[in-house]
Amino acid sequence: MDSLSQLALGAAVGVAVMGRRTAVWKAAMWGGIAGTLPDLDVLLDHGDPIRNMVLHRAETHALFWLTLFSLPLGAAVARLHGEWALWRRWWLALWLVLVTHPLLDAMTVYGTQLALPFTNHPFGVGSISIIDPLYTLPLLVGAGWVLASRGSATGHRANVLGLALSTAYLGWGVVAQQQVEHIARASLQAQGIRAERLLVTPTTFNSLLWRVVAVDGAHYHEGFHSLLDAEPRISFDRFDRGMALAGELQGIDGVQRIAAFSKGFYKLQDEAGRVLVSDLRMGQEPAYFFSFAVAQRHSPPVPLDRPEQVGRRPDVQRALPWLWQRMWGKPLPPPR
Q: Which residues touch 222 (CB under 8 Å, ≥6 apart)?
């Protein structure tokens, strides 16, 4: 999730666990700090843009390492504030803040390596957008209320209510995802498309409009469904995955990393004499943020010394009006 959501979640959890045992500003401050700590791994350079992508949300998001780190952190905070008698409560609060960060991240599609050092599998449910105001707003209101009221009973109840509403929204996303997946599978079958892999994830900022990607061998199919659509049917556009290039690129490390990290949702393409590999999970056709140039187009392709990130975002002036109208069920073709 975005940094604001993680900060708000950390502050809300910190206040909820510490209650009135300490000043509410201390609980919110340390909760917010601990809630953003795991994302400091973006400052690490692993050598190239592809490694930086796939190694984000790795060790700093692993439940095992965060649990170990929470012990000295909790003790240090308790000692700093002269509240050693509360160190176990501080440890519990900060441990919950630290572990809820990657657990929330795992609800997005990106991929979070929760189980390191035992497995580097990137967990990603994909039931909530990386930025969704409806998740973040209850946390901000609840935490803001308890801070503004200086820890009043009403403020603490508002904070707990904000946590409950945001958690319920996560549950809603999982239910909605399952419903759209059911519609997607029926639509694919009706159109004679045999999907090897199926991705169902919400579009940015909302949980009404969902994007569906079905991989079918050398092609992938993209469609959109709003929960407010009049008909439970999805129309798909078909695109080439560039698998004719796969054999020539199988020895390139970056391609292998993207193929594994995206769980097979990737494409290859020849653009302006360069070979690109793109993660199909984040973005929509033809704009993908995680798109990388990995080789010069020759026969065979010549790997670049260092991959170059060349991804782009959709044209906001076209994409946002389409998103808003399509979200409410208006049958519009996606901007291409």
A: 211, 212, 213, 236, 237, 239, 284, 285, 334
